[in-house]
């Protein structure tokens, strides 16, 4: 669709047609605060949360995040976005006691998209993201108040090798996990298929007691096509999966 734009003068009127997109201007820039997780090469997922900047007499400012009812998860590319960290150097995994933030508590160390990729490999990252359409244009890391963890029993379903859906009490949440996630198995070996063999490493409640690693969780989840019974320790605010216990129902 094209739009007609006319310019009038004292004795003449000239008109030109321009594309509708040019007439309406570029897409509006929007902002989302929340914990971002990797979602494929050069992309992240983030569910917008309500931010509250907290300033204390001692220590740097941080944000307290709260859920936004009905908020939808966003998937955004970031290959061309500017990225600013709260660390004093781009390659640091932690602040190491020194931070680089502006007056609004936002990271100000200028880094590259590849540094964000490295950060997302470590787990969820609290970010302020400015985006247009499906692309992030400016990203600032910030310090976030650590959320409290919860323990619950329910059903776990694999989405990919770092993401699961957990359902309990009629509610389903998406959770991310990393190499640091613990996995407690009821099976004889860490590398067994889900619930393979006798529950030789289960307690009286059917919970796995054999300590294993996140890579074993990934391998085991690949062997089931239906949601699996588990007990988990997770952080609702960040969507982080801390620990998983395999549940052997007949133990």
Walk me through this protein's architecture.
The chain is mainly beta. The chain has two domains: 30-141, no CATH class; 150-246. The chain is 8% helix and 44% strand. The chain is built from three helices and 18 strands. The strands form four sheets. A seven-stranded mixed sheet has the order 7-4-3-10-11-8-9, with helices on one face. Strands 14-13-12-17-18-15-16 form a seven-stranded mixed sheet, covered by helices on one side. The longest helix has 8 residues, at 113-120.
Entry keywords:
single chain; disordered N terminus; 251 residues; 2 domains; mainly beta; elongated
DSSP, total strands = 18
Helix content range: under 10%
- Our measurement of the CA-to-CA distance between the termini, rounded to an integer number of angstroms, reads 66 Å
Question: In percent terms, what proportion of residues is strand?
Answer: 35-45%
In total, the number of domains comes to: 2
Catalogue the unreliable spans. Answer: 1-24
Instruction: Give me the number of helical elements.
Output: 3
Any idea what the shape is?
elongated
Largest sheet, in brief, is: 7 strands, mixed
Structural class: mainly beta
How large is the radius of gyration? 24 Å
- Side by side, the strands of the main sheet go 7-4-3-10-11-8-9
Mean pLDDT: 89
